[in-house]
Design brief:
It is built from 8 helices and 14 strands. The chain has a 6-stranded antiparallel β-barrel with strand order 9-10-11-14-13-12. A 6-stranded antiparallel β-barrel has the order 2-3-4-7-6-5. By secondary structure, the protein is of the alpha+beta class. It has 3 domains: 2-77, no CATH class; 88-182 and 297-306, Trypsin-like serine proteases (Thrombin, subunit H, Beta Barrel), CATH 2.40.10.10; 196-295, Trypsin-like serine proteases (Thrombin, subunit H, Beta Barrel). It binds 4-(aminomethyl)benzoic acid. 4-(aminomethyl)benzoic acid is lined by residues 255-258, 260-261, 275, 277-278, 281, 288.
Length: 312
Amino acid sequence: MVNRIFLLLLVLISVCGEETGMINAGKAADIDYSDIAGEAERHKNDILKFLNQTRVQEKYKTMYKCLLSKLLGSTRRIVSGRNTSIAAVPWQVSLREKTYPICGGSVITDLWLLTAAHCLLRARSSELTVRLASSWKTHGGEMYDVKECFVHPRYVSKTKVNDVGLVRLYTPLRFTEKVLPIKLVARESRLLADVPAIVSGWGKLQEGGPSATYLQSSTIKTVAMKLCKRTGLDRNAIDPPSMFCAGSFTQPSPDACQGDSGGPIVYDGVLIGVVSWGLGCARGNFPGVYTRLSHPVIWDWVNGYISKKEDS
Ligand code: 4AZ
C-alpha cells in the first residue's frame, strides 16, 4: 500500500516537475495519466499527509503547489474554479453571521480584515464571526469574534459604488502558513487589462446552484473598461473609478458567484479588488465586477483605519 502511494507520488512529481521546469521528462506528455489520476484521488489523504510534512514541503517547494493542485484539483466546477488549499490563499477568510457563512474577506493586517460594504450592512458586529486557516467552509481552522465593523462612508447600496468595508478583530492574529496578510495594491496604481488574477471563495459553484464546501479558486483576467461597459445590460451601473471587471467572454467563463462577495482578487501577489457584484454568474457575456482598491477614495479610507495606532 505504502509503495503504491510512493509510485503515485513519483508520477505526480514527474508531471509537476515538468510543469515547473524542474524535470525535463521529454516524452512524459505522451503518457495517459487518467488511471493514475483516479487512483491518486482515492489515496489523496495519504498522499496529502505525506506532502504536509514540512520537511517534504521544503524539499519540493516549487513543486508543492502543483502537486497539491493535481491532487485537489481533479474536480472542475461550473464556475471553473478548482479545489484550493487555504495555504495557497492564506489571506482568505470566511465571514459569518452567527454560524451562517455570508461572505468572503481578506486578512490585510494582524487586526484588520477587508470585505465588501454590502456584506456588513445587515449584520451587527456582535453577531459576526470569522473562520480562518481552513479550506473547509464549515469546519477546521480557527474562529474569531468581530470587535467592530466599518462600511465606507461613501458606499452607495443602489449602485455598489465604493463597495468596501473593514472588520476589526479583538485580538491580533497569529500568522501561520494558513493565515497570512495580503499586501494592498498601491494608491492610484493603474490596473492593466488582460492580466491574470486569482479570485477565491466558498460561493456558489454555479448560478442558482449549491455553494462550495471546499475552498475554490480560479485565475481570471482583468477586462478593459471599454469592453466591460460595452457588454452591460447594466451599462450605467459600472463606475470605473471605484470598480473594475474581470472574467472572460467565452464559455466556460470562470467567475465569482453569490457568497464569494467580499472575497479577494489578487494579481501579482497584491490585493487589487474585492468581489462585489455581477449579472448572474459565469454567463460568458458579463464579467464579474470588483471594487477597485487603488482608487484614492477607497484606498485612503482603508489605510486611514489600518495604519492608525491602536490605543486599545
Ligand atoms: C453576489 O451575489 C455576486 N458573477 C457576486 C459576484 C458575482 C455575481 C453575484 C459575479 O454576491
